[in-house]
Amino acid sequence: MTYEIWNDRLGGSFFSPAHAGTRVYLYVTPEKLDAIAENNGGLADFIAAIKTGPAGYPGTICEKAVAVKRAWRDRRTSYPPYLASLCFFSLAADHEGNWPAHAYYPRLWHLLGDADYGMPQGFEFMRRLWLDLEVWSVADREGSLGVFKAQTAGRRVNVGLPIAQSILSEEERRRLPELFEAADLEPGATLSSGALAAALAGHSASRLRRRTQQLLAAADESDYRAELLGILQAELSEWDGIVPALPNQAHPAAPRAGLRLWLAGVDAAGFVKARFVASLPENVEASDLLLGCPAIPGRQFECPARSGPCSGALRDASNGQELPAEQMSWDSRAEFKCALTGTRLIFPAAPIRIFTSALNTVHLGGFIETRLIPLAGEFYIAAAEPDASVFAKWGAEQCREWREITVRSGLRRNWRFFRGAEPRGAGILERRYAVFPTRAAPRIRFEGGIRAGAGAKYFPFALPDIVVDYSVPPLALRFNNTLLTSIQDGRYSIPSELVRPSNVIDAEFSDHEAHDVIYILSDGWTWRDGEDCTPSAEFGQPARGPGLRIRGADVHWDAIPEFVPDPMSVAEHPAMIIGRIPGQIIDLRRGAPLPEWAPVWVVSIRRREVVFFFCGSSVDDAAPQPAQTGYSTKKWGSFLWSTRKRTKPLRVPRLQTLLRAYQEAAHAL
Fold first, then answer.
1. Closest CA to 350 of 305, 382, 323, 398
2. 265 membership: H or E segment, kind and range
3. Collapsed DSSP state (helix, strand, coil) of residue 524
4. Residue pair 45/37 in contact by the 8 Å Cβ criterion
5. Which of 54, 367, 393, 638 is most buried by its number of CB atoms within 10 A?
6. Are 376 and 490 spatial neighbours (Cβ–Cβ below 8 Å)?
7. Mean pLDDT for the stretch of residues 486-503
8. What angle is formed at CA 629 by the lines to CA 627 and CA 632, rounded to 5 degrees?
9. Residue 318 and residue 609: Cα distance in Å, rounded?
10. Three-class SS string for 296-344?
């Protein structure tokens, strides 16, 4: 088969409507190539096609791949024309042979039947192709054929990309949710490499290949082990808590999420306000949970909905009183289960509880529980003996600021409480406690914001922060080639004026680099910088030179005065949209699409209050309507009625009367 035929068949194998919204890896094996070729000579035929390359393009295999990428979207091919080349590089990463575990290039040359060595000419430009494949899958196709992520495994940027595709087999990736469940890990949790390896190693038998198990349990910190742990951490970060049913099971396990401790307040006099909050994946709605726990018989608890990945503090469903955290054991496991959906919220056992600023991580006040001691800023540690004495000694030796706080209320009895800042190193904790971020390579991730569907795609009005996880901050971080200044060590704010539909982030360090892409939802144009909607002048003629330029709803002209919004009609951090008919409610925080019905209220959920903003066309035509078939009224009624006591009164009497009518309609359902 020709290169072009291989490209199309591989594209159809990896990207299809059946994979919509799910992560795609270019995991290529000789068996897969034989299946595509429908004979036992698939591998040899594929290698021959790679060596020939796309028709009409001279040069090395890398130079041909780069050349065929140029302006490829104008040729309207079904799949990116360089896909077969990327599949070859992925195949080389898993090629068996008598080479050191870290050796990549010898495998590549052996597949080609060449005696050459070292990096192939032009291989350093392959990163552009991996990134472009991500843009095509997430932006051009909007995840409809699958979501590809140009994830670098380890510190070797060039070879890390293909290695990331093959370090786990398809069967291993399929069983990762089962492995995470067996290890009792929280969806979205971030652990140190040591803690992650220790948690998974004991449950990897029969779920991972023997060589993967050996790599996971190895004592040495090889590049491949670091790359494996990096991939596993990325998969855990994106896990939605769902575990598919096993072949011998009639039904899958109930979805799971996490419970964390939240220090809502730490008084100088020693009074601590500790509460439980739910850490939820995007597919779980806090407002849908009604929780019970065997350790607290006869009581049920609600999770107040709020923006961000965490709910508000758990509260008693009968009286609205928050559940004090000291009423539960902190060194034993507890499970809360939803009576409505079966979702399980796990509070893991731990003799040590670490707390970092909740404002930057989950957009709460106070301090939220984490699994890692932050390398910058202040933090708190609660521990029982004998661990408390170890941490007391470590803090005095290693932290720029350290003191023990005498707690009068809010903590478990016999637990000690410490405040620290700016740790210099692990010190005496290194061998015993895996509580420091020991990443072999930097990782770029996004915190906050409102996601819009699959992939790293966000709404433009709610951009996330960029966070770089590594032992040292980057020397430079660029967003679309513009240098950004850190708002805190390793955390960066995205300037709205620099945002494009697809945005490249480059982090530079002294010995290596990291790259990522973030997508911002457009307003209906394609992701190719609006080639289908060119600017026009005042009367529709093509815009030429300076002056008035109109492109859809985007108008640029020096003579247009700056728009100053009415503060009574503009919502900050919009969370919900509500319509006139019971059941017309949309949760923007979970990336739900905008409704086809006309909204009446935009709701902002803040820390202590709920604020309604009127967005209807007329107050006279905005009264609530009777319930209609086709709508589920439960969520509409529950939200309007349950939030009434926290709802901020509206200053306009007519709007306050209208809102009261909605609350009464909700109560009557």
1. 382
2. strand 256-266
3. coil
4. yes
5. 367
6. yes
7. 84
8. 70
9. 20
10. EEEEEEECCCCCCCEEEECEECCCCCECEHHHCCCCCCEEEEECCCCCE
Euclidean distance between CA atoms 150 and 342, whole angstroms: 35
Read off the amino acid at residue 365. G
Residue 130 has pLDDT above 80, yes or no: yes
**Is the whole-model pTM more than 0.85?**
no
> How far apart, in Å, are the Cα atoms of 220 and each of 129, 214, 430, 524?
33, 11, 15, 51
d(CA 333, CA 338): 17
Contact 637, 582 (CB under 8 A): yes
> Cα separation of 654 and 619, whole Å?
8
Contact 488, 377 (CB under 8 A): yes
Strands 256-266 and 344-347, bridge-based pairing: parallel
Long-range (24+ apart) CB contacts under 8 A made by 653-656 are 654/619, 655/614, 655/619
Q: What is the pLDDT of residues 172-207, one digit of tens each?
A: 988 999 999 999 999 988 888 888 999 999 899 889
* d(C-alpha 72, C-alpha 438), whole Å: 41
- Describe the crossing of helices 193-201 and 210-217 by its angle, rounded to 10 degrees: 130
Mean pLDDT score of the chain, rounded to an integer? 85
Q: Is the pLDDT of residue 489 over 70?
A: no
Say what the pLDDT of residue 399 is: 94
pLDDT at 525: 45
Query: pLDDT digits over 362-397, tens only?
Result: 767 889 999 999 877 889 999 999 999 999 999 999
Helix/strand/coil for 17: helix
